[in-house]
Amino acid sequence: MIFVSLGTQDKPFYRILEKLENSRVDEEIIVQAGFTKFESKRMKVYEYVGPEDFNRYISEASIIISHGGVGTIMKALDLNKVVIACPRLAKYKEHQNDHQKQIVDNFASAGYILSFNEDDDIDEIIAEARSFKPKHFKSNQTIFLDKLANYLESI
Predict the structure, then answer these.
(1) Under DSSP, is residue 19 helix (H, G, I), strand (E, B) or coil?
(2) Which of 28, 87, 109, 144 is deepest in the core (most CB within 10 A)?
(3) For residue 13, which phi and psi values (nearest 5 degrees)?
(4) Angle of helix 70-78 relative to helix 51-60, nearest 10 degrees?
């Protein structure tokens, strides 16, 4: 199963769903579409899924396709999942600016995820994802929390 998360941004994001609708993917595709209203003959599209279902879909998916949101990317990386991320772009009115492009480019150049750009072929990137071995992501959250606790204890 492929799980697609478009986030909860209040702007639609059709590009990735249109490409998936016309792809050769032959496995189940489940989509959390948020504000993107999309009718599909091949994908299960939900406006929102609750946290329990969201976590289950990410856990069970062979591939995660995401917008360039840090939350979804980090959740998938924490579970050692293969992520294809497609940034929302301002020129398509999918976001106010192109900060998601920078996020996706940084994660991809470090070897954690695959990036999907507007001119890429969705079938090719999914084929690449099937053999992609992402670099293991280690969060510095524990280090940060330890430093914060030590600081708070010292004041």
Answers:
(1) helix
(2) 87
(3) -145, 80
(4) 50
Within a 13 Å sphere around the CA of 135, how many CA atoms are in the beta-carbon half? 12
- Token readout for 99 is 């900060």
d(CA 120, CA 59): 26
Q: State the amino acid at position 1 in one-letter form.
A: M
Structure tokens belonging to residue 29 = 């595709």
Retrieve residue 108's tokens: 């991809």
Residues near 49 by beta carbon (within 8 Å), at least 6 away in sequence? 32, 57
- Give residue 21's Cα distance to chain centre: 17
pTM greater than 0.90 (yes/no): no
* Nearest of 15, 30, 47 to residue 116 by alpha carbon: 15
The string of pLDDT tens digits covering residues 81-99 is 999 999 998 887 888 888 8
Residue 120's alpha-carbon distances to 11, 73, 75, in angstroms, are 22, 20, 25
Task: Read off the pLDDT of residues 23-43 as tens digits, 9 standing for 90 and up.
Answer: 999 999 999 999 999 999 999
Which of 9-13, 123-127, 131-135, 148-152 shows the lowest mean pLDDT across its residues? 148-152
Tokens of 70: 């840090």
